[in-house]
Amino acid sequence: RELWIELGERSYPIIIGDGLLNRLPQALSDRGMGTDGDLFIITDENIAPHYLSGLEAALKEQGYTVNSFVVPGGESSKSLKWYENIMTEAIQLGLDRKSVVIALGGGVVGDLAGFVAATYMRGVRFVQVPTTILAHDSSVGGKVAVNHPLAKNMIGAFHQPELVLYDTATLLTLSDREIRSGLAEVIKHGLIWDEAFLNWCDEHADALLKLDAESLSYALYRGCEVKASVVSQDEKEAGLRAILNLGHTIGHALEAVAGYGELLHGEAISIGMVGSARLAEELGYPATIVERTQSILERYGLPVRIPKHLDTDAIMAAMMRDKKFKSGQMNFVVPVEIGKVEIQTGISPTLVRSIVDDLK
Ligand code: NAD
Ligand code: ZN
Predict the structure, then answer these.
(1) What ipTM was estimated for this complex?
(2) Which domain-ending residue is among 116, 138, 173?
(3) With contact defined as beta carbons under 8 Å apart, do 324 and 249 qualify?
(4) Which of 151, 173, 195 lies at the terminal end of a domain, its last residue?
(5) How far is the centre of ligand 2, averaged over its atoms, from the C-alpha of 143 (Å)?
């Protein structure tokens, strides 16, 4: 499957399919990235043992000069420290403007490598080879970043890839939890934009959880397509793009309070999406939205309740610290029907608090 993302003046393909990894050399040259530019692959220690040497060999065989950098697995690698280490390596290798940075990994590697590509010599070409389901989300939109110790994603840029090559076979080595968590974002794309796709996700839950290649490739394709529809209408985050944050206001607060690691991102937003549906119900929208949201998430084995030991005060405080809230007013993305969301402003913190308590 191939999907072209059109953003402003630029466009790039997302190619999705089973066993595509060894087609990277061809895809690079098709996109004008020939062997005159050195390749710099950035990946992490959990991915490298499975896929790195095969990919390097395939590229070298076609005449590419390939260098690789492996960071530790996990969010802590999205840091200025690892960014600097990678920059040091890039300079020592003598990489120049013709070089291409390749992210082989999930959202962490994608964001980190993307920020390297955006800033090395004021920007070099960037290619994504996503290896998680969640990374379908980060492969569209061009947001790249590292974290600051005080706040996530605070240091970043917009930098679009030249190409995204998504091999569904690489997803087979993901843990069961990572699979479910990534699928939460796929479900989110159905909830915000496309009831028919949500129904499809419901019907194909077993196939997706078993990582059936054909079903996965459609789910990732449609997820990317929905995100692209939203982002292309709002590339620099003026308004519409906020609907992608369904479930994220509560979800980010839960992640922060639980300490990163206890709840995976998709698990946190799963709970957050149920919270937003509850909020919709309180605002007068049909209760069936809550039932439908909850039942599909449960079918995917995703959590729909806030772990009891997480303190409500701490969750509320984390939400109020969120940069999106000005002067005590809360804004929320709420589902007003299945497949359609709206941004509701001026939500009272008391109401949100009662929903948080209820969700425990
Ligand atoms: P991740 O990249 O940390 O991957 C999750 C875990 O799975 C890691 O331990 C990783 O080493 C391992 N892993 C990855 N691929 C594997 C494979 N094929 N086989 C075995 N193990 C594998 O996490 P993620 O969930 O992919 O991404 C989360 C990050 O994405 C966050 O930092 C988030 O901020 C970012 N993100 C960015 C955007 C964006 O628009 N730029 C959108 C959504 C999320
Ligand atoms: Zn998310």
Answers:
(1) 0.99
(2) 173
(3) yes
(4) 173
(5) 12
Q: Is 241 a catalytic residue?
A: yes
Q: How far apart are CA 40 and CA 255, in angstroms?
A: 32
Question: Tens of pLDDT along 144-159?
Answer: 999 998 888 999 999 9
CB 203 within 8 A of CB 189: no
Q: Which domain holds residue 53?
A: 2-173
Residue 118 is part of a domain; what is its CATH number? 3.40.50.1970
The sign of the CA dihedral 77, 80, 84, 87 is positive
- Whether residues 289 and 184 share a domain: the answer is yes
* 21 and 166 co-located in one domain: yes
CA 131 to ligand 1 center in whole angstroms = 8
Tell me, rounded to whole angstroms, the distance of Cα 135 from its chain centroid.
4
Cβ of 137 below 6 Å from ligand 1: yes
Catalytic residue chosen out of the listed positions 78, 159, 245, 281: 245
Residue nearest to atom 38 of ligand 1 (CA): 138
Span 59-82, pLDDT tens digits: 999 999 999 999 999 999 999 999
